[in-house]
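step=predict obj=LPXTG-protein cell wall anchor protein n=203
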Amino acid sequence: MQQTTGIIHGADQANLGNPTGVVNRENTTTDNTITVENVQKYGDFHFIKQDVNTQEKLGGAEFSILRAKDPTVKLMKKIANLVSGEYLYAWSSEVSGSDWEEVKLISDSEGKFSIEGLKQGTYCLQEIKAPKGYALPKNEAAYTEFTVDDDPTTSDKTTIDNQPKGILPSTGGTGIIAFILAGISLTGGAVIYFKKRHQEIEA
């Protein structure tokens, strides 16, 4: 029996994030050769970044991929000793060293970005940098769950929306302050106007 350690694209392997999984292959030295392989399914996922109001496509947004809505466990990609056409991923809680770097996706000028070669399963996309002139989503709005599978009835494309800065208030942001100040100014102006009109009528 031949044992090969490491994550091998296209072969059965341990859950994503186990870089020391073992792939077993059964071979005989006679004319009858038996090969036992379990094929692990992979998939790609595509995203589009756009303005929530105009649907204008937005470039320059940056994203991380998380195991869950926990920014401390991020998807990593091996950058050393790769075989052509092979994608090796693991979770940040399970690997370290200069051979690995965090996966970061950036939308292009048409708002498009994608991830390739992921093991089928559910992941979480986190926006970590908004396009220029747009507010970075906060709390639940910063996360988008997506599932990689081979079901033809489900979409492998998700649209991610952004609010322009100053259009609508965001929690804890300067937008809400601007709206409050504008409301106070309008209310104060209306009070002064009606008070002056009342004095003119009495005169």
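step=describe
The chain is about 15% helix and 30% strand.
step=end
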